[in-house]
Amino acid sequence: MNETAQISILILETAGGKGLERTLDTIASQIYTNYNIYYLANPDPSSPDGPAMPEFSKPMPEFHTLVPAEAKTTGGLLNFAIRQIDTPFIMFMRENDT
Fold first, then answer.
1. pLDDT digit string (tens) for 38-60?
2. Cα distance between residue 73 and residue 69, in whole Å
3. Cα separation of 71 and 58, whole Å?
4. 31: which residues sit within 8 A by CB, 6+ positions away?
5. Residue 44, number of CB atoms within 10 A of its CB
6. What is the pLDDT of residues 76-91, one digit of tens each?
7. pLDDT digits (tens, 9 = 90+) for 2-28
8. Coil, strand, or helix at residue 33?
9. CA distance linking residue 23 with residue 39, whole number of Å
10. How far apart, in Å, are the Cα atoms of 61 and each of 38, 55, 64, 84, 93?
11. Do residues 58 and 28 lie in contact, with contact meaning Cβ atoms separated by under 8 Å?
12. Are 51 and 77 a contacting pair, CB within 8 Å?
């Protein structure tokens, strides 16, 4: 991918990571590839390193994990992420969407 990403795909953690790999496989199978992926999760006190990076079965563009310093509501999480993204377009998904 040589161009600057035009779309940011925000994947909101809703099921503790279950279904994320399938969602990422679905995204990777699309023809359009000029995007960045952001996985958005609340902090987990039992996992100080944050969410585990998934295994990718296909080549993926940039993958970022966003975790705020303190737990937030769904709206708070989305606002937190939007402030850190600089692409003109944003797509919202949940981790079990395909």
1. 988 887 766 655 555 666 666 66
2. 13
3. 31
4. none
5. 14
6. 999 999 999 989 999 9
7. 478 889 999 988 767 777 888 888 888
8. coil
9. 11
10. 11, 13, 10, 17, 17
11. yes
12. no
